[in-house]
Amino acid sequence: MAEHYASQSFYTHDTMLYAEDNPHVIIRSAKLPLVLRSPTSDDAAALLQIFSDPRNLEHDESAGGLDTPEAIHAMIINWVAFTDPLTHMSLVIEAEGNAVGVGGFGWIGALKDGSDGRVGDAGVMLNPEARGKDYAYEAMRMTIDHALRVLQFDEVTISLTKANTAMRGLMDKKFRLPPKEFKGDHGMDLQYSIKKDDWLSQLHS
Questions:
Q1: Residue 7 predicted with pLDDT over 60
Q2: Which residues of 25-36 are buried (b: 16+ CB within 10 A; e: fewer)?
Q3: Is the distance from CB of 120 to CB of 91 less than 8 angstroms?
Q4: 29 to each of 16, 33, 53, 98, 101, how far by Cα in Å?
Q5: Within 10 A of 159 (CB to CB), how many other CB atoms are there?
Q6: Rounded CA gap, 79 and 87, in Å?
Q7: How confident is the model at residue 5 (pLDDT cuts 50, 70, 90)?
Q8: Angle 69-79/44-52 helices, nearest 10 degrees?
Q9: Virtual torsion, Cα 69, 74, 77, 78, nearest 10 deg
């Protein structure tokens, strides 16, 4: 596997989205025993557990309905079917060799202002036992940097409910980004936005 160093060297990546055999993404932290990668059928049991735990779904209703083996099987097939242009890029979060969560982009599309370019909405979901170890921050900053630097996105957004205090704390304290309010399905939600030029001009390692 040929891995490439990001210019800030806090992760390596092997990005083969459109390989005829085994298309995949692997993003490996240089700091923590943490990997973001495309799923395989071997992840089915772990993913079923992740999406069946109500503590993981408390602030993400879009992840509901993935609590059967059949649903997980279909999801894995969808996750490794990379479209051109990309419309999603969901990844397994692996810590110390175990699948402990999911991350990446549930939605990727055109910039909202109508200009040329791509934007992805990023997120992180971790099992309770994997929280409090800096995994969420590391997974999020690798996801953001890989999208803006490697995939050449123009913007990354992170959308969440106001009730999701853990993710709000991560964005406010670690990334120090001001959110904007928007009307969601169940009231006012928050969205954080990161532009490519702003991110690449700062040090995130």
A1: no
A2: bbbbbeebebbb
A3: no
A4: 18, 7, 26, 15, 15
A5: 20
A6: 10
A7: very low
A8: 110
A9: -130
